[in-house]
Amino acid sequence: MTQKLTQKQCTTMSKKITINQLDEDALLGKLKSTIVDTIIMHTRPKPVSRDPLLTVPEACAYLRISRSTLYRFIAMGYIVPLKSGRRSLFKTSHVEAILIKQNINTLNTKKS
Q1: Whether 88 contacts 81, CB under 8 Å
Q2: Tell me: the pLDDT tens digits for 23-78?
Q3: CB of 22 closer than 8 Å to CB of 29
Q4: Nearest alpha-carbon partner for 24 in 39, 9, 8, 2
Q5: In angstroms, rounded to a whole number, what is the distance separating the alpha carbons of residues 107 and 59?
Q6: Pseudo-torsion of CA 56, 77, 93, 111, nearest 10°?
Q7: Which residue has the higher pLDDT, 13 or 21?
Q8: Which DSSP string do the residues of 44-102 spell out, in sequence order?
C-alpha cells in the first residue's frame, strides 16, 4: 500500500527533509537514515584530552612534596586522581593548579 504524498517539510533535529511526491517506504527510509545519523553524531566518543598524565611519584616530584602530602591533598579535595586499575594518575593541568593555589596562599600569608 504505497500512497503518494504531497510536498511537505519535516524538521528533525535541525535537519530538514523535503518530501516531493515520495511514497511511504521512501519516506520511512529517509527518516530512518536521519535518525541513525543523529544518534551516531550524539553518541560519538568525545576527543581524548592530550593533557599528559603523571603517576604518584611524578606528581610528588613535580610539586616537590612527599607522598603523604599528595594523599592529604587528595583527601582534602585539592586534586582528584584518575584511577586506572590500582594506579592513580593526575592530569598535569590539575597538578599545576595546585602550584598556583600554593603560590597564591603563600602570597596572601606574606602580606598579612
Answers
A1: yes
A2: 777 778 888 888 888 887 777 776 666 788 999 999 999 999 999 999 999 999 88
A3: no
A4: 2
A5: 23
A6: -110
A7: 21
A8: SPPPPP-PPEE-HHHHHHHHT--HHHHHHHHHHTS--PEEETTEEEEEHHHHHHHHHHH
